[in-house]
Amino acid sequence: MPLPSFHDQTVGLANRHEQRWPWWPLLPLYPYGRRRTLVRTLVPGRIWSFEQLHGTWYVAVPIRMTVVKVGEGLMLYAPIPPTEEVVARLRELETEQGPIETIVLPTASGLEHKLPVPALARAFPRATLWVTDQQWSFPLRLPASWLGFPRQRTRVLGRDGVPHAEQLDWIPLGPLELGLGTFLEQACLDRATGALLVTDALVAIQDTPPDLFAEDPTPLLFHARDSGSEPLIDSEANRRKGWKRILLFANFFRPASVSVPAPGPLLRDLFQPGCRTAREHFGFYPFRWSAGWESEASELLRRFAPERPAGLAPVLERLVFPGAQRLFVDWLRQLARRTEIKLLIPAHYQAPQPCDARLLLELAERVQAADWAPSDASWATLAAIDQTLLNWRLIPPR
Ligand SMILES: [Fe+2]
């Protein structure tokens, strides 16, 4: 079966393929074992996107694995959980394009990209696994083979060379010592298409909900409410409202405009008419939004406005790069020297994004001039986490 085109946004969401993912009892992650995958062609015959939702408490955002044509086969960049649906769609691609030769884990720290690696590697036993150097686990530093990486066919990017150098350039961001471990990410430039693949370092966020929510907008509608006693009502306005609130949670953990209600009102909202099923969490909604939430969301979205197609997620800016603005700017300037770049494909949120050397240079200049890693307003919770890590000496002093 041919893959849907880039403009065919919903064909890849096949509810007949809803899958149970075996980790879900261990991690309270949305979509609670019913993980669906949206498959899109980003560059015909060359690059495909496999997207899923991941998160918790209905705070769900897209995560993406990118499939790239390499020589006579395929490369998987930034693994996602290999549900039966994912494996079936990859087998279809293999029939059309050749075998999956390479699986790349392009980050040393991103747990959501690391966890699916062993199962994906087992599903494609002939593929070589390339991992970013300085992999780490917490609280114990375990050998890679203990983490499920197959010893015989695992290579380390940089140390053991790089895969497909005749076609791809690998541009590292880092290493940056975090104390708990190391941040290191490997961007990948496909010279022929001008596609720049990144993992977490750059994202593009839109104010409209991703297509992954088209079939089941429950998370959006859940967060569009102002109390647990309100039923979930599907409308375009509610979908947008819910998405903006999800963005605030996902980017700031606890936005400035949200508070937790007292136990009394919280309990009174439980089991009200229209809110008595697990879908509504039986009326449990421990958030109260103040009037300023929309301007807080607008402020966040300005970082990713159409004229500035991508940026660094606040979580990374405040918790990973607060003392490494220069490192990030230098990496952007390094990318900006690559005139082949036409597209940006991050592992989260929107893709593909138009991108080129000029836009990357402008971004570098904007970042350099920015009030970097602030601690007030929306950023207060991230700043408090950072301070706690400093106090506990889990991260080095700056
Ligand atoms: Fe990530």
Structural class, please?
alpha/beta
Query: Largest sheet, if any?
Result: 7 strands, mixed
What is the overall shape? globular
Number of strands: 14
Helical proportion?
25-40%
**Cα end-to-end separation:** 54 Å
Q: What is the overall number of helices?
A: 11
Low-confidence residue ranges = 1-28
* Annotated CATH architecture of the largest domain: 4-Layer Sandwich
| Proportion of residues in extended strands | 15-25%
Summary tags:
alpha/beta, Metallo-beta-lactamase, Chain A, 398 residues, 2 domains, 27% helix, binds fe (ii) ion, 5-stranded mixed beta sheet, 11 helices
Describe the structure.
The chain has 398 residues and is an alpha/beta fold. The protein has two domains: 15-205 and 309-387, Metallo-beta-lactamase, Chain A, CATH 3.60.15.10; 220-302, no CATH class. Helix content is 27%, strand content 19%. The chain contains eleven helices and 14 strands. Strands 1-2-3-4-5-6-7 form a seven-stranded mixed beta sheet, with helices on both faces. A five-stranded mixed beta sheet has the order 8-9-10-13-14, with helices on one face. Strand 2 (47-56) and strand 3 form a beta hairpin. Helix 5 (236-252) packs across helix 7 (293-302) and helix 9 packs antiparallel against helix 10. The longest helix has 17 residues, at 236-252. It is globular, with a radius of gyration of 21 Å. The chain starts with 37 loop residues before the first strand and ends in a 7-residue tail after the last helix. The model is unreliable at 1-28 (pLDDT under 50). It binds fe (ii) ion. Fe (ii) ion is lined by residues 110, 112-113, 199-200, 347-348. The site of fe (ii) ion (FE2) has 7 residues, from helix 2.
